[in-house]
């Protein structure tokens, strides 16, 4: 798990260009909602596979954040819109919200 986070962080140094975007907008809401749904879905899937509630939460969060990072890496291609830390921040906020809502629903 630590290796995945380290490799993901190191891969950010290879981004070809950065986006020049605002903190708000329709795409930010899409990042938030998609990440929340992916996090909750990852939590639920892991729990259905017999994983403990704590581990399923970690799997859900990492699944959602990994998808968000992958999308930003895709955007950082020369023909893409550029890496956006603002999009990635909304991804993390959405993943955290999805985790919290999932946890509340299972108490």
List keywords for this structure.
mainly alpha, 107 residues
What would your notes on this structure say?
The chain has 107 residues and is an all-alpha fold. It has one domain (25-105). Helix content is 72%, strand content 0%. It contains four helices and no strands. The model has no long low-confidence stretch (mean pLDDT 85).
Give me the secondary-structure topology:
Layout: H1 2-11, H2 26-48, H3 53-75, H4 85-105
Helix pairs in contact: 2-3, 2-4, 3-4
Based on secondary structure, the structural category is mainly alpha
**Global shape:** globular
Radius of gyration: 14 Å
Biggest beta-sheet profile? none
Average of pLDDT: 85
Summary?
This protein has 107 residues and is mainly alpha-helical.
